[in-house]
Amino acid sequence: MNKIALITGASKGIGKALTEKMLNENFFVIGTSRSGKFEKIEHKNFYPLKLDLSSTESIENMHKEIFRNFKHIDFLINNAGIGPDLDTYIPEKESFNLTFDVNVTGTVFFTEPLIELINENGIILNVSSKMGSLNVCELTDSVAYRMSKSALNMYTKILTNRLKNKIRVASIHPGWVKTTIIESNLKNGRLTPKQSAENIFEFITNEFDSGTFWNSENGTELLW
Ligand SMILES: NC(=O)c1ccc[n+]([C@@H]2O[C@H](COP(=O)([O-])OP(=O)(O)OC[C@H]3O[C@@H](n4cnc5c(N)ncnc54)[C@H](OP(=O)(O)O)[C@@H]3O)[C@@H](O)[C@H]2O)c1
Asked: Where does the signal peptide begin and end (predicted)?
């Protein structure tokens, strides 16, 4: 039987590339985007869903749909994330709140009810960023984005403790990837989404210790 992966933010960038990779590797993939539309992902094992993590109603609708149609999930991959204040220096309230709504609050309240659906030996992967590491931060840009990823990392730690010996949990830094999370990444990013997805896939399909913060660009552990 195909393993089932639920990937948020599957419509573009890293999430789309990971969806394609996992479909090619015989996973059944439930993928989400705000519109529920997915360009060029047509596969018998792809199940598209609409999800806006900034909306409680959308999250609740998504839960209903998932519980109606699925008895279990093997991999929950919280990939969707935004960075409206990337490369800016002074926090601005509207984009600060939106960043936290999507990257933190939405992700947490989307994840919580799904935990009971995740098989023993399943995994939860939070797509975080090196920019959220408290240990390696020497810069002053992207206040909301960095803080949101630090908060997400704390959620990884808490889930690791709560789900010990049942579900493995990790945060991953997917590398500096050519996506439109910020326009300049298309030029400056070091990895294509496909390369990043290959690295992430290798991490999640191998034995990793729960509670790891992994830099999949260079295959090393990151400090929290
Ligand atoms: N690119 C990098 O260099 C880099 C580095 C470190 C970490 N990351 C992390 O990697 C993850 C993926 O980023 P990416 O670079 O692939 O970005 P991206 O190309 O902008 O893709 C973001 C995905 O999130 C979805 N999304 C946006 N707003 C959403 C919302 N309110 N609710 C639900 N889904 C939403 C988007 O779908 P729709 O717009 O279709 O809804 C899209 O599928 C993010 O968590 C990001 O922080 C990226």
From this structure: none
